[in-house]
Amino acid sequence: MLSAMLKEQRGERMDEEFIRNRITELRLKKGVSEYQMSMELGQNRSYIQAISSGRSMPSMKQFLNICEYFEITPLQFFDAQENNPQLIKKALDGMRKMSDDDLIMLIGFINRLNTEN
User: Fold this and answer.
1) What is the pTM of this model?
2) In terms of C-beta density within 10 A (0-12 exposed, 13-18 middle, 19 or more buried), how is residue 29 classed?
3) 90-109: burial string, b at 16+ Cβ within 10 Å, e else
4) Contact 48/57 with Cβ under 8 angstroms?
5) Residue pLDDT, tens place only, 5-34
6) What share of the chain is helix, strand, coil (3-state, %, to 5)?
7) In Å, what is the CA distance from 83 to each residue of 26, 36, 75, 86, 89?
């Protein structure tokens, strides 16, 4: 069971409430209902609602399926500082295909954007 995998990361306790809240946060960002997510995961219609309300926790296998559903890694799931892990993952996937020259140009662009804000 995933609840047996509770751990500490960056000084924050990763507990069942964090897992429930993180699933809800990612689900809302994806724009899907609890019902829709449950069905797309191949579960019964109230599966995600049961997790969100604290009545149950996903098994390790289901947790990995949930991460796959959100197109994120388990590490990204537990990184509370990463507000939009799906976009970060897509950006990193694209960056991995770039040449060194393009990466240097991208870093310059990022630095310019950060100084303007």
Assistant:
1) 0.68
2) middle
3) eeeeeeeeeeeeeeeeeeee
4) no
5) 444 444 444 588 999 999 999 999 999 999
6) 65, 5, 30
7) 9, 22, 13, 9, 12
